[in-house]
Amino acid sequence: MTTVFVTHPADKLTQYFGPKATQALEAIAEVRFNPEARELSTPELVAAAQGCDALIAYRQTPGPESLFRDLPQLAAFVRCAVDIRTVDVQAASRHGVLVTQASPGFVPAVAEWIVAAMVDLARGIGRYTQAYHRGEPPAPFMGRQLRASTLGIIGFGAIGRYLGDLAQAFGMRVLVNDPQPIARQPMREQVALPALLAQSDFVVCLAPANAQTEKLMNAEAFAAMKAGAFFINAARGELVDDEALLAALESGRLAGAALDVGRAPDQMPAPALARHPRVVATPHIGGLTLPAVEHQALETVSQIAALMRGEMPPGAVNAAHATRIAQWRLAA
Fold first, then answer.
1. Among 193, 188, 210, 174, which Cα is nearest to 85's?
2. Average model confidence (pLDDT) for the chain?
3. For residues 299, 304, 306 and 308, what is the CA-based torsion angle, rounded to 10 degrees?
4. Which of 288, 289, 276, 269 is nearest to 248 (CA)?
5. Is a pLDDT exceeding 50 seen at residue 159?
6. 221-259: b or e for each residue (b if 16 or more CB lie within 10 Å)?
7. Which of 248, 215, 210, 251 is closest to 231 using CA atoms?
8. What is the 3-state secondary structure (H, E, C) of the chain?
9. 31 neighbors 55 (Cβ within 8 angstroms)
10. Is 236 part of the annotated catalytic residue set?
11. Residues of 191-214 as b/e, b for ≥16 C-beta within 10 angstroms?
């Protein structure tokens, strides 16, 4: 029987892997679980996963060379997430270990979170709720409508395209900044970044995180935004200069911000920003819905099943170097 180790912390297993995927995995393999309510260190993981053929890795579990070197039976590192930046794929390839990633099943969930964040920022729903909870008389302020507002989307991947459709359904004008050309539609236009920043009432950052986009939203970018606009980050914390965002909020240049990601552990918003009175902050839960979680968790199970059948699964990133696959003992 193939043996699989699931690295999710015990207190995250139900929410971020789920009973449906657990049951499906246990039906095809011998399964071991992380017994701790925390991420295991790499030496702890090496000790716990000895003899395992595959790891299903939580989004925070790194994949350094020592992991692949010190687990000689490990044939596959199956990431239960899209992001594999903390996995040393070259080292995995040197040791013959297959690395896979999940496809983005969280597109509707994240796009809907962004719409909710825009409504909250524009109408002060959270602010009013907190005042009532504190027993304070809420001070009314003039809200804004999404209809007839301009949404600027930086990065027009799957989430950006889905969000653009939602925004247009609300009657918003959509500006897009992306290196790839997009099809022009009524109320949707591709523009340069300075034009997007200057014209948008809501700026949503959905660009990929890489060396070119590090601190893409910096002091210069925030200064170029329309006065009184809102900024929303639902991509990666590395895209934003936190000090510059805080300064833009403090100066009043921005009316508010919504953050589901940041530079704190597990991509959570930094505390200094999260506690700002004009910031709506959530702890990296934009994709935390049952359909989104089950999509990725069940996909990892499907990847394991494909390997057991002798097939290379979708999501493999270094298939040509996966020499340890020959070690797999096919399930009876």
1. 210
2. 95
3. -160
4. 276
5. yes
6. bbeebbeebbbbbbbbbbbbbbebbbebbeeebbbbbbb
7. 248
8. CCEEEECCCCCCHHHHCCHHHHHHHHCCCEEEECCCCCCCCHHHHHHHCCCCCEEEECCCCCECHHHHHHCCCCCEEEECCCCCCCECHHHHHHCCCEEECCCCCCHHHHHHHHHHHHHHHHHCHHHHHHHHHCCCCCCCCCCCCCCCCEEEEECCCHHHHHHHHHHHHCCCEEEEECCCCCCCECCEEECCHHHHHHHCCEEEECCCCCCCCCCCECHHHHHHCCCCEEEEECCCHHHECHHHHHHHHHHCCEEEEEECCCCEHHHECCHHHHCCCCEEECCCCCCCCHHHHHHHHHHHHHHHHHHHCCCCCCCECCHHHCHHHHHCCCCC
9. no
10. yes
11. eebeebbebbbbbbbbbebeeebe
Selecting among 79, 236, 276, 295, the annotated active-site residue is 236
Q: Which two tokens stand for residue 287?
A: 């994709």
Q: How far apart are CA 248 and CA 56, in angstroms?
A: 41
Of these residues, 276, 284, 295, 324, which one is catalytic? Answer: 284
Q: How does strand 150-154 pair with strand 202-205?
A: parallel
Establish whether 321 is a catalytic residue. no
Confidence of residue 332 (pLDDT cuts 50, 70, 90): very low
Cα(123)–Cα(137) distance, rounded to whole angstroms? 17
CA distances (Å), origin 71, targets 3, 50, 64: 13, 6, 12
Rounded to whole angstroms, how far apart are CA atoms 196 and 117?
19
**pLDDT digits 0-9 by tens, 58-96:** 999 999 999 999 999 999 999 999 999 999 999 999 999
- Token pair in block for residue 88: 């040393």
How much is the pLDDT for 330? Answer: 46
Each residue's pLDDT tens digit, 168-211: 999 999 999 999 999 888 899 999 999 999 999 999 999 999 99
